[in-house]
Design goal:
By secondary structure, this protein is of the alpha/beta class. It has two domains: about 140 residues, Rossmann fold, CATH 3.40.50; about 280 residues, no CATH class. It has 17 helices and 17 strands. Strands 12-11-10-9-8-13-16-17 form an eight-stranded parallel β-sheet. Strand 1 and strand 2 form a beta hairpin. The C terminus is likely disordered.
Length: about 450
Amino acid sequence: MSSLPTLEWKLSRNGKRVPILNGRAVASLYDPAREAERQTKGILEEMGDARGQVLLLVGVGGPEFLGHLQILADAGVSLFIYEPLSELLNDCMAGHTSGSVQCTDQWNRAKEWAQMATLVLGHRGTIVASSFHQHAYESLLGIQSRIQINRNTLSRFARLWTRNLYLNAENWKGQAIQELRGKHKGRCAIILGAGPSLSDHMESLARLRKKPNRPVLIAVDTAYSVCCSRNILPDFVLTVDPQPVNFYHLAGHSNSTFLVADPSASPLALRRWSGPIYYTGNPFPLFASLWKALFSNPTMPDELAYGGSVSTNAYDFAQYLGCVSVLLVGQDLSFAGSRVHASGSALEERLQYIESRTMSRETANYRQRFAIPVVPLPGEKGSAVHSNDKLKVFFDWFNRRFQEDKDKLEIGIARSGGAEFSEVPLYSTIDDWLGVQESKGRISERTSKETSL
């Protein structure tokens, strides 16, 4: 994070005090009071039904802006402000007598507020003038977005989770994921996502079948049918989706592949699986009650980190196995080349059966690409790529985890033409990555004992 900005003060033309950060005014030098009134009314319009909402602002914006926030408080908004510059915060609060706004200069308190907030906004003048405030705003917005997605997911799937847990409970055999902890310690792994670029790397993956000591193959459920169509059998498949459509992804399963499943996953998908199943934990309170009721000496399964997509579970699972190096394949996080799915995926093939004159495959793909607000992400080729709000959440999650894990895990990404992770090595082919791993002795020196589960 950059250093705190420098602070000065100037008088506006009408005699109001205006903070200057890094030599740049954060409010109008003509009439800051009028500007503050316009800004607060704009926030109120953006919030719509404001009563009961929780707003976290990054940047106090100056005495005039702070004073005009009473408009929001009167509308029923709970107001919180994070201002990391203590001197600026204390100066603005000195003339503010209303107790309707809570302010802090402490980062940990701000993160707690972000988890409660329904909306996180940055004071525009402040975040433009100060990169420190800009970074803080982006971090707090990321926290709030993750929590909000969890709330939305719970609201949407709570009934389906409950139904699935009851239907799946009779088939639980007590195989908790703990049995797999550290089973592949020191090995390298390839994580197969279902992005369109997965198709570009299938030949390299097929050649791995001839390697006696190949890396551990971990596939997400949506990539599994693509692998099976090329006779590529992953070591592990992960599934978390509670929706019945997930049934299609696990067609053509093999007894040699281990399924790692969330206990609330689709019962249709789990019941058709004849191979071994290992269950992860689930944060839904009902799961703990059912698990404890079914087993006399219950050990709750460990939970995998979840960033909104099964690919985030797969990444965390590779570390759970003890892998020291991972390559992410098919992790496009965008619609590169207007493609939506990897060629041969279950959802793409399913479109063949429901195509009609008014609903072609191209129309369905177009609708999926624009069903969620478009968000551009930095691309591997230097220009922005077409993504959306949902994929950006996964992009931010991976960015955060890559930073946290860079000292304990070697991370690589296979070229996809999609979103770029600037600090992660990019490999044109899987063979290029394998060459690096072989040079470090991570593949050739493994024994048959280490490769067996």
